[in-house]
Amino acid sequence: MSPIFLFLTFVALLSALGVVFAKNPVHSVLFLILTFFSLSGHYLLLNAQFLAAVNIIVYAGAIMVLFLFVIMFLNLNVDTEPHKPALAKIAAAVAGGSLLLILVAALKDVTPTGVPAGTVFNSQIGMVDQLGMKLYTDYLLPFELASVLFLVAMVGAVMLGKREVGERNF
Amino acid sequence: MIELPALGWQSIVIFVVFALSLLIATYCTYAERVIAAFLQDRVGPDRAGPYGLAQPLADAVKMFTKEEFFPGGANKALFVFGPCLAMITALMSSAVIPFGNIMNFGNNLFFLQGIEVNIGMLWVFGVVSLGVYGVMIGGWASNNKFSLLGAIRAASQNISYELAMGMALIAVLMISGTLSLREITLQQSAPGEWYMWNIVKQPLGFLIFLVCAFAETNRTPFDLPECETELVGGYHTEYSSMKLGLYLFSEYVNIFVVSAVMSVLYFGGFNFPFQYELRDWFVSSQGWELASAQNLITLLGTVGLFLKIFAFIFFFMWIRWTLPRFRYDQLMRLGWTILIPLAVFNIVLTGGLILAGVI
């Protein structure tokens, strides 16, 4: 394992823990952005440049900006944080614990077999042109279905954001 | 051992690009005032040094020696982190811009470019989309309503105009078929067709990109995040000393970078008219070697690129001192209901023209 890999993994885990443990929601968001950056670093190590760049643009550049936007409006801080009842805490612990149990149970019998012999690994598969070729030939249907999903989401957003008759915002 | 670019000769290029970005941004502050004075028929800064050329230096001394002020209830760490982030993201994007072609010394090839990656355009776009964090974090950490409003404005403005900008870029990428800025530049240099820059093929796309560039760099007429008539100083209301300096400075670095990107994408980058004829003239009439003639053309091309960049920077300042500010709802309406449909139309148009074999 290269030192860069270890460093990125360290940063990713540490910042992921920071997301959960930070008291301030804005700090949580910033830790999450750092996590995305280290994941992009991992993509770069795997020679998936396109994925790395798109991960930054979409997640760090767009989605997290919106997250931060909303959290800034909410103005959450220690004074306004609602007190959580003990029942909710117990329920959360039980739910999280059972998820952990299932994950461990599912993964404990897995034996890594590696790549089947005779497979030629294409180191250029993460490049834009190769990825585009793959998406538009072998995976055309899932790709088009995903675009239909996006279209539906867009129409929904326009419907929700549409001004009602007689409504004035300013 | 992984070969880092900083270990090779390329590090000199990276350092020069870094230093030039800062130098140009420094003198942009001076140029802004001189151009403002010219447009308003005033004298402008002329006290510090000959023609006031030492004015940026005087400003720097002033910025560094001012009191460092932390507003009450501010989040100190993020308050400091905000301007740093703004500066870092502004400086990062110039790494992939090709400032010149190849220099050839014997058998050593120099790329006049920080790093050549095949996702260059995505890199620039990604870094530009991160630029808003500096403003947002700084505005929020100030614990001031005006700052917060400025930060919120910056965020929604950047997200809105990024969409149109990205779609204007898609049309360019459809023509070029590559994301590498160097490849895009080289494609605009077909011998005998010096006039076929991308601006000829993408006039509408360029217009959309230009408007979005103004919005992304928070320049007038889109400088709503720091609109002093409504928000005192916007996101940097509470900032003083060099932290304020970094915010103001990062704006000029952003202008420089976005001018460079526009020159590369639409105005042929380091290509200039009749470059091949000039090279051949040096070889045939002056008896130069091909390599040294090529090196001269490369250097002239770099000068040409910087002239294009300076022209764009002048254009940015010209607009600033000519047009008044938009109202916020006008800004949003322009972004969502005019620029984005136009950009989609541009993509369809480009696709049609490519199918018809016109471009």
UniProtKB/TrEMBL annotation, chain A:
InterPro entries of this UniProt entry? NADH_UbQ/plastoQ_OxRdtase_su6, Nuo/plastoQ_OxRdtase_6_NuoJ
Q: Topology in the membrane? A: Multi-pass membrane protein
One Pfam assignment? Oxidored_q3
Please provide, in alphabetical order, the Gene Ontology terms of the cellular component aspect for this entry.
plasma membrane
Q: What class of enzyme is it?
A: translocase
Q: Please give the catalytic activity noted in the UniProt record.
A: a quinone + NADH + 5 H(+)(in) = a quinol + NAD(+) + 4 H(+)(out)
Which UniProt keywords are listed?
A: Cell membrane, Membrane, NAD, Quinone, Transmembrane, Transmembrane helix
TM spans, by residue? Answer: 46-74, 86-107, 139-160
Tell me the compartments it is located in: Cell membrane
Molecular functions per Gene Ontology: NADH dehydrogenase (ubiquinone) activity; quinone binding
Q: Please state the Enzyme Commission number of this protein.
A: 7.1.1.-
What function does this protein fulfil?
NDH-1 shuttles electrons from NADH, via FMN and iron-sulfur (Fe-S) centers, to quinones in the respiratory chain. Couples the redox reaction to proton translocation (for every two electrons transferred, four hydrogen ions are translocated across the cytoplasmic membrane), and thus conserves the redox energy in a proton gradient.
User: So what family is this one in?
Assistant: Belongs to the complex I subunit 6 family.
Q: What is this protein called?
A: NADH-quinone oxidoreductase subunit J
TrEMBL record, chain B:
InterPro entries with a match to the protein in the record: NADH_UbQ_OxRdtase_su1/FPO, NADH_UbQ_OxRdtase_su1_CS
Can you list the GO cellular component terms from the UniProt entry? plasma membrane
The Gene Ontology biological process terms listed for this entry are: aerobic respiration
Name the UniProt key words of this record, in alphabetical order: Cell membrane, Membrane, NAD, Oxidoreductase, Quinone, Translocase, Transmembrane, Transmembrane helix, Ubiquinone
Q: How does it sit in the membrane?
A: Multi-pass membrane protein
Catalytic activity annotation: a quinone + NADH + 5 H(+)(in) = a quinol + NAD(+) + 4 H(+)(out)
Keyword Transport in the entry? The reply is no
- Looking at the UniProt entry, the stretches that span the membrane are 6-30, 78-100, 120-142, 163-182, 194-215, 252-276, 296-319, 331-356
**Subcellular localization(s) per the UniProt record:** Cell membrane; Membrane
Please indicate if the UniProt record lists DNA repair as a keyword: no
Could you tell me which HAMAP family the record lists for this protein? NDH1_NuoH
Q: Which family does it belong to?
A: Belongs to the complex I subunit 1 family.
Function according to Swiss-Prot or TrEMBL = NDH-1 shuttles electrons from NADH, via FMN and iron-sulfur (Fe-S) centers, to quinones in the respiratory chain. The immediate electron acceptor for the enzyme in this species is believed to be ubiquinone. Couples the redox reaction to proton translocation (for every two electrons transferred, four hydrogen ions are translocated across the cytoplasmic membrane), and thus conserves the redox energy in a proton gradient. This subunit may bind ubiquinone.
Known partners and oligomeric status: NDH-1 is composed of 14 different subunits. Subunits NuoA, H, J, K, L, M, N constitute the membrane sector of the complex.
Q: Which named protein is this?
A: NADH-quinone oxidoreductase subunit H
